[in-house]
Amino acid sequence: MALRFLGKDPGSPSGGSPTLYYDESDDTYVVQGWKVTDPELLAQMDIPDHETVVRIPRRMTQFFSEVNGG
Q1: How many domains does the chain have?
Q2: Cα separation of 11 and 57, whole Å?
Q3: Could you read off the pLDDT tens digit of each residue along the chain, which spans 70 residues?
Q4: pTM of this prediction?
Q5: Helix, strand, coil percentages for the chain (3-state, nearest 5)
Q6: Is 44 a member of any domain?
Q7: Cis before 18 (ω within 30)
Q8: Is residue 68 part of a domain?
Q9: For residues 33-67, b (16+ Cβ closer than 10 Å) or e, as one string?
Q10: First to last CA, the chain
């Protein structure tokens, strides 16, 4: 796995999370974010056992090249 760092949340007080990476080996994004634990929200999604859900702030879309024409 060849992860390429794309960016950290510029609004994060500690500068540690959320973070976005690009995995060059399989052309996917790897997202580090706040774990979603709210049962009401989770009930609205069909999440397979092998997946999890995280939140990232909207301002992080700047790091997705597709959003920015790159």
Answers
A1: 1
A2: 9
A3: 689 999 999 888 776 689 999 999 999 999 999 999 999 999 999 999 999 999 999 989 888 876 556 5
A4: 0.78
A5: 15, 30, 55
A6: yes
A7: yes
A8: no
A9: beeeeeeeeeeeeeeeeeeeeeebeeebeebeeee
A10: 22
CA angle, 16 as apex, 23 and 11 as ends, to 5°? 105
Question: What is the extent of the structural domain holding 14?
Answer: 3-63
Mention every residue, 6+ apart, whose C-beta is less than 8 A from residue 57: 9, 11, 18
Backbone phi, psi, residue 54, to 5°: -130, 160
Q: Is residue 69 part of a domain?
A: no
DSSP 19: E
